[in-house]
Structures
1.
Amino acid sequence: MAVMRGAFTVIGRHRRAYVVLNVVFYGLVVCGMVVAAVNPALQQSLIESVRSSLAKGPLAPLARAYKEGNVLTAMLLTFLVNLAGGAFLSITVP
């Protein structure tokens, strides 16, 4: 709990920077959503990229397991992908 208290103390001390960063970040997210919503060519490009990566990319076995209804295989592969992506790439690499 002391770690959380320390984090909130830092946020409280730098409230203006925290608010500005949040407004910028979420503003960019909203701008991206609007651009994607009004640009059908961009939508198609994104959809095709996702389909391609699920068909031939590293996530193809996972997509195949879901499509074929192999629940245990899908669970295991989802766990491994999340473990690799969540733990290794976002914690260890930085």
2.
Amino acid sequence: MYLTLLILPLLNSIISGILGRKIGQKGSFIISGISITLAALLSILAFYEIGINGSPIAFTLSNWIDSEILEINWGFYMDSLTVSMIIVVLIVSACVHCYAIDYMNGDPWVSILGKCSN
């Protein structure tokens, strides 16, 4: 769940950036809205588990350097400070994203760009 919380906005930007013309304006709005809202909800759950309950989480993704006396790993460590920043950033991002989708819905340039891609 914690890795999904971090990777979901990245996947959203990749899908919207690369496949934006293929899936269209409405598809891009739906995918990006669901993705950022789901990440914000997961951040609330992570804040409850880590921030309120006080149980930091550390997990290793892979080894980077592994020698006899030195071992450096790629990983994440989430404590209450990390999760409190994640929850603020993702909730504000979700609110701004929902506002931008509604605001850009009537924009003539979005319609023109959507017609050019078809």
3.
Amino acid sequence: MRRWLGDHSLSLSFAFLFIVALAGQSVAGHSSYNSERSMHGLSALGYFRYLRTGNFLDGMFTNWQAALLQLGCLIVFGEKFREKGAAHSLKPKGERHRQKRDDGKRRPWLYRHSLSLAFVALFTLAFVAHLFFGTMDYDAQLQMIHRSPIGAGDYAVSSAFWFSNTNTWEAEFAAIAIYVILSVFLRQQGSPESKPVDSRNSDTGETND
């Protein structure tokens, strides 16, 4: 059991942090949502009923689709583009050595691109969920001010929907750009996300083993 925990400690650590953050979101969101309802003269919702509202579910899927888009773009762009000196980048054309292996070309196309395809599928699911639950949340807000709800089609072309998308996307893209640039100049000893401490800034794609 100890060996298994050690072998999977990275994913387990992030799973634990995810659960803690999700619990925090649900508790804080429940309190904030009931405060908003009270300002409109509405009764408070119970905690478990709140977990089924568009307010909670849309908040969750808004962030999920943005994070999945970020990682999917990093995977796909990393196949085509370069950043000289960055830890996770293809080497500049003049510095690339010919691969001795066939790079898996005998494998089926689906398998060779399975990672990016998985992120495309996950992003699509999260984006659709964000649209569905975002419509629920938006309609609930309209009802609080005694206005008629709108459908998912109208919400999909609304400024509110695209505002929620673009403000999360910009943060994800900025975080990746900052990481790529800082990995050229900065190091983290022992981390596979960093170049070796003694490597030069111009060394590209030389992460710690």
4.
Amino acid sequence: MWRRSGSVCGLAGLLLGCTPNTTGVGNPMAASVGDGDGGTGDPAAPTTTSGDPDDGSADATGDPDPTELTTDGSDDGPLLVITEGPSFDFGTLDTGTALTHAFTVTNLGQATATGLSAAPLPAPYALTGPFPGTGGTCSSTLGPAEACTVEVELAPTELGLHLATLAITQDAGPEASCALRGGGLGRSDDLLTNPGGEMLGSPPPGWANVGAGTWIAGDPFAGDPPIPQGMAYLGAADGPDGQDYVLRQDVSVDPWAVTIDEGVLRASFEGSACNYRLDNDRYRMRVLYLDQADAVLATWDTDWATTATWVQHEDERLAPAGTRTVRVELLCRKDTSEVCDAFYDELQLRVLYP
């Protein structure tokens, strides 16, 4: 009882003279159309500058003539390109939904490509069926100047950014590739264990006592501030005066490492705190963003405060690139009496995308 005395570009990108999409801006509506011909209406028409004589000269852009590039230095090999270019953005989808796009594959070479196939894609990307996908038109061969389609679906079940590469391979030539990008819109559940002290014990289950004094999860005493949520809260107990009591919980965010390092994952923290009475002891909450080596990348801090009523604090920010752990710390500093009067409840730590 408590007591109180008081991008991938590759060969296709070189041919097309394009640059990867690094803005993260997509067009999901356009992505569902799937003719991929740059608006010409002719799926066999690649988005390249052609028509130069076969004289070894460069085209108007300064790039080599694609009809003169082959796998063996001659001008009679197959050459596959994906018309969408070096990258394609599916945009942001609600988790649990799906979007399909038909990618156009064109043979710019002078010989028939054989053995066409697509390398396996990591979830949540997939062909819509066996190669070339349910709505695709590619077969195992593709003649010079011919085009066909391969159908890819993005169906995110988890929030965050998802990256992959669509690679079309052949028997006797280089693969054609396109970097895929798409996001699952969402907000995670509370990532904290025992965020309101409903799992009773000392130290509170899910938390570690790393400072002076002790902590407990349990029911309040008569005269304590009313509980804002549930039947218990987290609180400091007995210990020395003038020292910091620290209750800590580390949360791994490794599942969202790609999204974090792209600089597009947000972290949200909320928590309520109070003291037994005004100008008694003091409370403090901190959230630290740590890298793989536990170096601190960013910190949110309420600083020391004292109040006799529950006060809600909140912070939302982009998780710094390199973050792998989010550390939540609850603190109390006892000035007098038997126990350190700082109480916490309604704690939430969530991640959000976008």
